[in-house]
Amino acid sequence: MRRWICALTVCLLLLTLTPAWAETKRIDTWYEIFPRSYRDSDGDGLGDLQGIMEKLDYISGMGYTGIWLMPVMASPSYHKYDVMDYCSIDPEYGTMEDLRQLTRACHARDIRLILDLPLNHTSTRHPWFIQACDALKAGDVDCPYVDYYVFSDQNGGSMVPLDDSGWYYDEQFAGGNMPDLNLASETVRGEIASILAFYLQYVGVDGFRLDAVTSYFAGKDDNIAFLRWLKETCEQLKPGSFLVGECWKGLNDIADYYASGVDAFFLFPVSQAEGSVCRALRARRPGEMFVSEMDRLYEALPDVLWAPFLSNHDTGRTVGSLQARQNLPRAKFAEAVLQLMGGASFTYYGEEIGMVGAGADPNKRLPMLWGDGRETELPPGTDRVEYAYPSVEEQEADPNSLLNYCRAVNALRKAHPEIAGGANRWVYAGDYAVIAERSEDGVSCLVAMNFSGSKTQTLTLDGLYTLSDEVETGKEHADVLWQRGKTVLKLPPYAVCVLKAAE
Ligand SMILES: [Ca+2]
Ligand SMILES: [Ca+2]
User: How many whole angstroms from 214 Cα to the centroid of ligand 2?
Assistant: First the structure.
């Protein structure tokens, strides 16, 4: 009897603990963290999982509802994209118990947590690879681990010689000591399914960011088929889990990859100096350019969840791409455009305080500038350290800071879910000012943005609208006036506001 009561209690707990996002469509505002450079909890100079725990209230308070952790599994490199044990946490970052605790703490704040999962390759120090190489050198081609990688006795392409054994192995990321896994092997897929189950069910994370999905196989169709298998496997293990893929390609390729059923793919064409947002902000007619860029996205990617971002750990940071070191309003406005363009947005840590970094990879992964003297060590290989804007501590205290602006934009996004998830219709598309109507489930609002950093735009809209929300970029405020059944809207430079139809 007691056993039955226990079982019933567990069932009831499971029922009550099922979070809302498992039942309903939920679009998150994601935050990407490089744990090594984020927050150090034990004073060894390296950021760690307990450090992220310390900052969950900060992350949540900023309005981010999802966290993507860059790789945390055991690895010999500082970046940890070359895994040597998929089911243990790198000791620099902590323990598996720390990750479980972090996951629970995220869920307590209604934050979803996803892990970076590099499946294209492992480290050369992974025991699978070591055993395969030892076997081949000893002439044992039947060792089961040989089939885990792509070995051949033929050189060419991306093949790398295995010492002087006469064998070669495939390595798509040349020189990184990262041999490619043989993802066609059923045994390897079995290992991967166990890893997915371990993290989704035992640790409790909410999904994965899939690294380098275009390198899985030589052909796109094979990559898409493998991604479909990954998505279906995750869905069986944990319904509602979230997968986002790194397909560093143009819009047409990204559109093809959505056929895999993976929830979203990063919108590389939106990101970086030459992407939609930065290009629009630099254009002579920025509003017009933005609308044409967005229309290109709607045409290529209708009816799928977008994953727009401005920068990540592999790209130059946004303030540099925008040449906004001395132009705080422009840095703010770019962040608003990202958060209000629709889809599941991704913000790289430090973007909310305008950190800069370009060139060598470590420069793009600098210590988060908390301002309390507890910053982490520089990543090895850093050759330029620059902070264009003040620390978190200073920006928290300044109502006009980028940090407080980002917090306000995220709050605006949250207050009007139709902005992230609704259908888009252009109400006004001028050289500078743009107004989009977003509608979802019978709720709609207008999002107005002035892409000019110097000129106030005044426009007239059919119908009566009221100002619902505004994020203040400068000293002037947006304003509405009603005249003969029309609304006259005044938008100061870089103004962003939300209008609702008058009752
Ligand atoms: Ca540490
Ligand atoms: Ca591969």
Answer: 8
